Amino acid sequence: MLNYIWFSFFIVSFLSCVFQALIKDNSAIFAQVVQATFDMASLSVEIALGLVGVLCLWLGFFTIAERAGFVELLTKAFRPLFKQLMPEVPSDHPAIGSVTMNMAANMLGLDNAATPLGLKAMQDLQDLNPAKYTASNAQILFLVLNTSSVTLLPVTIFLFRAQQGSIDPTAVFIPILLATCASTLAGLLLVAFIQKLNLFNKTVFFYVLGFAALMGLLLLFLLKSDAASLTERSSLLGNLLLLLVIISFLTMGFVRKVNVYDAFIDGAKQGFDVALKIIPYLVAMLVAIGVLRASLVLDAILVAVEKVVVAIGLNPDFIAALPTALMRPFSGSGARAMMLETMNTYGVDSFAANVAAIVQGSTETTFYVLAVYFGSVGIQRVRHAIGCGLFADFVGITAAISVGYWFFS
Predict the structure, then answer these.
(1) With contact defined as beta carbons under 8 Å apart, do 305 and 318 qualify?
(2) Which long-range contacts (CB under 8 A, 24 or more apart) does 306-309 make?
(3) What Cα–Cα distance (Å) separates residue 395 from each residue in 197, 302, 321, 392?
(4) Residue 381 β-bridge partners
(5) pLDDT class for 93, splitting at 50, 70, 90?
(6) Which letter, b or e, does each residue of 186-201 get, where b requires 16 or more Cβ atoms within 10 Å of its Cβ?
(7) If you average pLDDT over residues 104-123, what whole number do you get?
(8) Beta-carbon neighbour count of residue 41 at 10 Å?
(9) Rounded distance, CA 175 to CA 141, Å?
(10) 406: Cβ–Cβ under 8 A, 6 or more apart, which residues?
(11) Cα(92)–Cα(239) distance, rounded to whole angstroms?
(12) Can you give the C-alpha Rg of the chain in angstroms?
């Protein structure tokens, strides 16, 4: 899918250049597009190298968390819930453990750990699947929860905002938390409805009640704020929570006899390698997007959408963030490049860039996750997985735009 999208960006941009030159008498468009390729390639390297420091910082802290047993702790906390949500999986089967380990890693933003754990969980669930080429109910639920982006610490978003020079990189923390909760809840409810899961048993009820109570306290804290202080309160709470997370990682590691300094250094060493690995992906997507914008195709699309939005009486300020939202279900690297291009074009702390960051942090690459996870076990009939995953994406994007207006307009 990404292959076709990337190729089409260049073909459509070229056709637009020909149209501009022949019909609009704008022969300078070719030079603008070529210059955009060089500019975006340079920007890609600048962004990647600028991330080295912050990547080292957070990979170091996450390594401490892994060695201290934070993931295992979250696994124990959520194991009873997944036993209820996947009734066809025996309570003593390894699938319960691998599923909860994957979800715990996702919540902590441990992408490097989450993917292999997710593949193991899918394989464990496949062992119980009587129809090997058709997705089971448990596999669909697991995939939809992954595509709904259950992330409590969207550190990657903070890293990119910091690298781009944001005056407050964590200002989007609470908006992302609210939007990702909406996305996850929507996906869970739709799957539960289709699969006729009982969400009213005692175990699920207590988890939902606890989650609702936390979200209620958060909303109560925010609703007491006027428009002028809402962003300030969100930033204060976000920074406080992140600092508490860091202190918790360090304290738990120290108490459990982990050499926290050595663990931090081991994790931080990965930062430079990670930054270098993303350069080719950034170059590929940012150059393609730069060509699309320089050829005036992207602007034409956004203008057309804006006219429709205005015609139905809605506020069009979010339109500039739509490229990230439209790309997100197909490609994580593509959506990330769209977000970075929006930050570069409109400013990292602009309304459009803030909404793009919230979208990026609260949704997931549905088609990519589906292809990787189901493909790893040979699933061919996905049943309602795509519909539920895209519904969760739609709710997440809608929630992201809504909280963006609430916090930043």
Answers:
(1) no
(2) none
(3) 21, 21, 16, 5
(4) 134
(5) confident
(6) bbbbbbbeebebeeee
(7) 69
(8) 17
(9) 25
(10) 175, 230
(11) 39
(12) 22
* Residue whose entry in the numeric block shows the structure tokens 């089967």: 93
Rounded Cα distance between 134 and 381, Å, is: 5
- H or E stretch covering 377: none
C-alpha to C-alpha distance for 409 and 57, rounded to whole angstroms: 32
d(C-alpha 215, C-alpha 184), whole Å: 13
- Specify whether the backbone of 319 is left (phi greater than 0), alpha (psi in -120 to 50) or beta: alpha
The residue behind tokens 């996750």 is: 369
Contacts of range 92-99, beta carbons closer than 8 Å, 24 or more positions apart: 93/124, 93/128, 94/124, 95/121, 95/124, 95/125, 95/127, 95/128, 95/138, 98/124, 99/124, 99/125, 99/142
Closest CA to 81 of 248, 205, 216, 241: 205
Per residue in 293-337, pLDDT (tens digit) is 889 887 788 788 888 888 887 778 888 888 888 778 766 767 888
- For 355-368, b/e burial (b = at least 16 CB within 10 A) is bbbbbbbbbbbbbb
**CB neighbours of residue 373 within 10 Å:** 25
